Automatic annotation (TrEMBL):
The chain crosses the membrane at residues 20-41, 53-73, 85-113, 134-152, 182-201, 213-236, 256-278, 363-385. GO terms for molecular function: transmembrane transporter activity. PROSITE patterns: ABC_TM1 (PS50928). This is Amino acid ABC transporter permease. Belongs to the binding-protein-dependent transport system permease family. HisMQ subfamily.
Length: 394
């Protein structure tokens, strides 16, 4: 006699099988997406042909014929649109990297200050956060540009610092370095010092975990970073030759200039993003159990060491995921540079190049691809770091 458990199952239709239905729906969805994409592509090609617009990226080899206010590589008006692309990419990366670095530093300081037992420091940090994170970034860019940068005095009445830095409404003029005879030994010394610091940090961490003894890693690392390259300079000579800006006529010549559009953009994005990072830092620190602080105090650790070695390492596991989003937002918000004329990817390619060539699809596609690549690169780096600091369960 067959039991219920061993009874043969009734054969149903193939459409009642969940696996078959799942594969069927996925195949239908893929076909629908491909068909829709092909329709858009074919319709676009048809419309372009009707208007006599030739598609493709051959225009990148044509001469641009316009000047660019800031370029990190050599550029003349006779250069190609391809070189304009490289300049726009470098300018966008410049804003993103500088903004991320300074926003992280300021955000961590404000976030820690937000939890300070000192009433004044705590309230000042709160006012900073609630003020800057609730004002749209474009308005902050306008404020720094039109209310702070442009009203600065002209080059003849510029604010000078040490006769080498000059701040005016034309930007911040500063000395620019060039390679000298001692540059290669200096570079090798710096690289070897950085490798030594990495080895030192790992050794100090292993020593601390095994014996509990704390090694003054930051101070020793700083001493090495100053002493080794400094000794190299004494032995092989100055590694740099400096071009100092000089006032000639109505403007400065020589050196490097940080144009007011770049300064306003970096200041606005840094201040704005730092307010959000500060809240991420505050929430991450508060997510760490108070028992960790009490345990550190019972072991006699000073508050500064407790924060650096106990609280922050655990808080980073909570801080990093939302911090990644803030980095992505800063990189994407750099496209607001078009509002004040800073020559980034949007201003150059989605603006000037598009208007001159009429290659709207190609120009927009290139601009979108750049921001997509930047965002994916930031996500990959932050996800890699997040995995390194994540808790590994047994």
């Amino acid at each position: 006699m067959q039991t219920i458990a061993n009874a043969p199952r009734a054969r149903g239709s193939v459409w009642t099988d969940p696996q078959v239905r799942a594969w069927l729906f996925q195949i239908i969805a893929v076909i629908a997406v491909v068909a829709f994409g092909w329709y858009l592509f074919d319709n676009t090609q048809h419309n372009l042909a009707q208007r006599g617009i030739i598609s493709g990226f051959g225009f990148l080899q044509n001469s641009a014929g316009f000047g660019i206010a800031q370029h990190l590589i050599d550029y003349t008006e006779s250069d190609t649109y391809g070189r304009v692309f490289v300049i726009g990419l470098l300018n966008t990366l410049l804003v993103s990297v500088i903004g991320i670095v300074f926003a992280t530093i300021i955000g961590f300081i404000i976030g820690v200050a937000r939890l300070s037992p000192n009433w004044l420091i705590n309230k000042l940090a709160t006012v900073y956060i609630e003020t800057f994170r609730n004002i749209p970034p474009l308005l902050q860019i306008f404020f720094w540009y039109f209310a702070v940068m442009l009203p600065l005095p002209g080059p003849r009445q510029s604010i000078s610092v040490g006769e080498t830095f000059f701040l005016s409404n034309r930007g911040l003029n500063m000395p620019s370095p060039g390679a000298a005879e001692g540059f290669l030994p200096f570079l090798i010394a710096v690289l070897l010092t950085l490798v030594g610091i990495v080895v030192l940090v790992r050794w100090a961490k292993a020593r601390r975990e095994s014996s509990g003894a704390i090694f003054p890693t930051p101070w020793v690392s700083l001493a090495l970073l100053v002493a080794v390259p400094g000794l190299c300079v004494l032995l092989f000579g100055n590694p740099f030759t400096w071009s100092v800006p000089e006032l000639q006529g109505f403007n400065f010549r020589g050196g490097w200039v940080m144009i007011p559009e770049l300064m306003a953009l970096v200041l606005a994005l840094t201040v704005y993003t730092a307010a959000f990072i500060a809240e991420n830092v505050r929430s991450g620190i508060q997510a760490v159990s108070h028992g960790q602080t009490e345990a550190a105090r019972s072991l006699g650790l000073k508050p500064r060491i407790t924060l650096r070695l106990v609280i922050i390492p655990q808080a980073l596991r909570v801080i990093i995921p939302p911090l990644t989003s803030q980095y992505l937002n800063l990189a994407k918000n750099s496209s607001l540079a078009a509002g004040i004329g800073y020559p980034d990817m949007v201003s150059l390619f989605a603006g000037t190049v598009l208007n001159q060539t009429g290659q709207a699809i190609e120009a927009i596609a290139i601009t979108m691809s750049v921001y997509l690549a930047i965002s994916l690169s930031i996500s990959m780096l932050m996800n890699w770091y997040n995995k390194r600091i994540a808790l590994i369960e047994r």
